[in-house]
Amino acid sequence: MGEEKKKLQLALYWAASCGGCDVAVLDVNEKILDIAAAADIRLWPIAMDYKYKDIEKWADGEIDVCLFNGAVRNSEQLHLARLLRQKSKVMVAFGACAAFGGIPGLANLHSRKTIFEAVYGYTASTVNPEGTTPQPTLKVPEGEVHLPDFFDDVYALHQVVPVEYFVPGCPPTPDTIMTAVNAIVTGNLPPVGSTIASNKSVCDDCKRKKSDKPKVEAFHRPQEIRIDPEICLLEQGLTCMGSATRGGCGALCPSVNMPCRGCYGPMPNSLDVGADALAAMTSIVDAGDEKTAREKAGALHDPLGTFYRFTLPVSMLRRAPKPVQGGGPPTL
Amino acid sequence: MSNAFEPRIVVLCCNWCTYAGADLAGTSRMKYAPNVRLVRVMCSGRIDPAFVLRAFQDGADGVLIAGCHPGDCHYINGNLKTMRRYPALETMVQQFGIEPHRLRLEWISAAEGDRFVEVVNEMTEQVRALGPLAWKQRSAVADLSGSPHAG
């Protein structure tokens, strides 16, 4: 005793993310003061300026914990992931994008070429008559300038550097964040490789009434029906990912009539979250013959996007074969 | 030895109908394409969609799911669950860029050895025409984990 305990050295970083995970850290409200009291925040690009060389100057392992949010899909993000891994004792994949690839991970259905064709070519808001696309290097009179190299694939953090813990969610809920922070501050950490959330499904936390023999009469989108606030959303025909998704969020979305979108990722020991969700949702469709089954499944729009909304890069198939040619603008 | 492409087709079939149907084809000395690898499960309802994805991932050029005719399930309604799952699985597999003829669902009873032969031969030719799926090559992701700081 007597000796003042050294404060926890904390870094927060963002890669291919929307910023929501950083805002979620602020959503812990006044508890942010507890975090600030327990930790020195050494890096937090959303809140404080920094330069690469500041990070490079740190000693290896100088940072106790790095909360890394966002997927990795270009050379700058990869460089920072590797650099922060080197400087940090504990690396945490924070949020669905870092943990599973997240929404950006759906780009694994495309390639750099077809993404550039769309983004710099034919989206409704693109005006680019010269067909300019970003180049990693460009010679100008003053010298050579560089842009990060955009990859064909989107990676979850653990696919590029070793990761100690996973904190899922889009974004992680304040409770999930405080559980993680408390575990870190008290040193009461679970085994390496753990996901800091529940080991049960979202359904387990969901208070909606479920019948013993559930049935789906027809699939709907949430805006198409008047949703009963008491009854299981899947039984009302909404593509709720709850049964295939890890809990820990307190079933927040289903409690406000929004079907679970699967942001806490696969259940522990799941082979493939898409296969789990597909099996759970469609096995109970009320269809006694093939024709009816086909008609009713037709209303389940975009099964891949629904079942792998946050998890494509960590799924079994991981990506689609790289398209050599884009499909061109969608016809409406 | 010829280097011509020979499709590898994984048949996920139920113990009570389709496997017995395949057995009938064999004991009746019917000939069929040697391109199929049968995986027997107790009921087609046991076929997790993940089995199909794993087969494609691990090098199958086609996957045939086969079970008892609707109404004939040894377990009353296991095959109906397969029937309900199949349309969404088919769509999802196509969204992954896998051609329609590479995945097929058929009901083949223990008495339909000839039907088994017909389906296997037809599917083998369809997949042969498509060429190898070669999932691991076509969907290869560059390995970036070899960082100097990894480990």
Description:
The complex is a heterodimer of chains A (332) and B (151). Chain A is an alpha/beta fold and 332 residues long. Chain A is built from twelve helices and nine strands. Chain A has helices at residues 20-26, 31-38, 52-57, 75-87, 96-100, 112-122, 174-186, 202-205, 252-255, 273-282, 290-298, 303-307; strands at residues 8-14, 39-43, 63-69, 72-74, 88-94, 137-140, 143-146, 150-155, 165-167. In chain A, the strands form three sheets. Chain A has a five-stranded parallel sheet, sandwiched between helices. A two-stranded antiparallel ribbon of chain A has the order 4-8. In chain A, strand 6 and strand 7 (143-146) form a beta hairpin. The termini of chain A are far apart. The mean pLDDT of chain A is 93. With 151 residues, chain B is of the alpha/beta class. In chain B, 39% of the residues lie in helices and 15% in strands. Chain B has five helices and four strands. In chain B, strand 1 (9-14), helix 1 (18-27) and strand 2 form a beta-alpha-beta unit. Chain B is globular, with a radius of gyration of 17 Å. Chain A binds chain B through residues 72, 78, 82, 85-86, 109, 151-153, 155, 159-162, 271-272, 274-276, 278-279, 281-285, 287-290, 293-294, 297-298, 300, 302-305, 307, 316-323, and chain B through 48-50, 52-54, 56-57, 70, 80-81, 83-89, 91-92, 95-97, 135, 138-139, 141-142, 144-145, 147-151.
